[in-house]
Amino acid sequence: MIKSDLTDEQLIKNFQNGDRSSYNDLVYRYKNKIINFLYRFMNDMDAAEDLAQETFLKVYIKKDSYREISKFSTWLYTIASNLAKTELRKIKRRKTFSISSITNSDKEHNYFIDEGTNKDEILDNNENNILHQSLYSLEQDFRTIIILREIQELSYDNISKILKLPLGTVKSRINRGKLKLREILIDKGVKKI
Amino acid sequence: MNCEFYDKITDYIDNNLSKKEKENFEIHLKNNDKFRDVVNDIKLHTKLIKKLPKLRASSNFIVDLNKRIEQHDSQNRYSWLNIFSINKTKINFIPLLGTMSLLLIISFSLFKVSNYNLSNYNSDESKFDNSVAINDSDSLKNDYDEAPVLLIGNKK
Questions:
Q1: What sign results for the dihedral spanned by CA atoms A74, A79, A60, A30?
Q2: Which CATH number fits domain A123-193: 3.30.70.2740, 1.10.10.10, 3.10.290.10, 3.90.580.10?
Q3: What ipTM was estimated for this complex?
Q4: Residues in a beta bridge with B86
Q5: Which of A36-50, A93-107, B63-77 has the lowest mean pLDDT?
Q6: Residue A103 has what pLDDT?
Q7: Between the ranges A95-109, A118-132, A143-157, where is the mean pLDDT highest?
Q8: What is the pLDDT of residue A30?
Q9: Is A192 on the interface with B (CB under 8 A)?
């Protein structure tokens, strides 16, 4: 069977049985998705890369703690999300997070645009920045859920498992998050982007 | 704000409402301009969020990750050295001394246990010998008891 045909769960099982190349396949399959999630969450490309590597290192170290009761992606996003939350707490404690660092990382991310993305569909940089910054200024709980749902396109069920929240709470947080995002965009003077 | 309908905006956009719920939602949408504005804005924002550029990992992502893994593996391989806190330049003797003492105590207690077992074995063996001796003396006694009969016989 060609490896690309294997499911994530089959690949992690192979890795648990000692097949290192299955681990590499999982990294290739998920590295960009995890980077996207972490960048939107952290608003810092360096931190996103660093945490993504930390996430995959954890997968490598803790491979045996994965059980097939949940999807591999759920487990992976749980690790990434926990690492990101811990990192944000550390940053808040250090209080070194500055507006200038946001601006710098925004410049950087233009170098990493996925080649597969249709350039015509990409909004102009200014619009992207407004939307990205508005998303980032949302409370962490709302931001996480919106990123997982709308950018990562995960199901409500998966999000509920990743965040260990009831399905109803997930849905209501997505709604409230979007309403808050609208308020932020209006505050920034954007009615229609 | 009518919470009942505001809570259903995302489900409406995702087309996850039942037929009846959808009908009620659309009636409210039709009759309420402000609500319609909110729903349209959220629809648009959701679409735009989905269109945010997809980022990709830097070209050295895998190389850096493999370095981290190698570092972890090598740390793990020599983790037993951590017991002795071996540094590049110096050895911390306190844990080393502690480990040595522990090994000494363990070997001493093992030695004691084996000695105890040996002495137990020896005493058991002597008990066994004694019992044999007793049995032997009994048999001698029997021999002796029978001897006079023979002697008498001989005298005859």
A1: positive
A2: 1.10.10.10
A3: 0.79
A4: B91
A5: A93-107
A6: 47
A7: A143-157
A8: 96
A9: yes
Quote the tokens at residue B119.
């002495």
A13 CB-contact burial (10 Å; exposed 0-12 / middle 13-18 / buried 19+): middle
- Portion 108-167 of A in contact with B at CB < 8 A: 109, 112-117, 121-123, 127-128, 131-132, 135, 146, 150-151, 153
Q: How far is CA A116 from the centre of its chain?
A: 18
pLDDT value of residue A3: 65
> How confident is residue B100, by pLDDT bands cut at 50, 70 and 90?
confident
Q: Would the CA dihedral through A175, A177, A179, A181 be positive or negative?
A: negative
The predicted-structure confidence for B49-82, as pLDDT tens digits, reads as follows 998 998 989 999 999 999 999 999 888 776 655 5
**Contact between A43 and A136 (Cβ < 8 Å):** yes
Distances (CA, A) of B143 to B147, B148, B150, B155: 6, 9, 10, 18
Q: Is residue B136 part of a domain?
A: yes
Would you call B86 helix, strand, or coil by DSSP? strand
Q: Retrieve residue A102's tokens.
A: 């946001």
Count Cβ–Cβ pairs < 8 Å, chain A vs chain B: 113
Query: In whole angstroms, how far apart are CA B30 and each of A78, A180, B38, B111?
Result: 41, 23, 13, 92
- What kind of fold does domain A1-102 have according to CATH? Rna Polymerase Sigma Factor; Chain: A (1.10.1740)
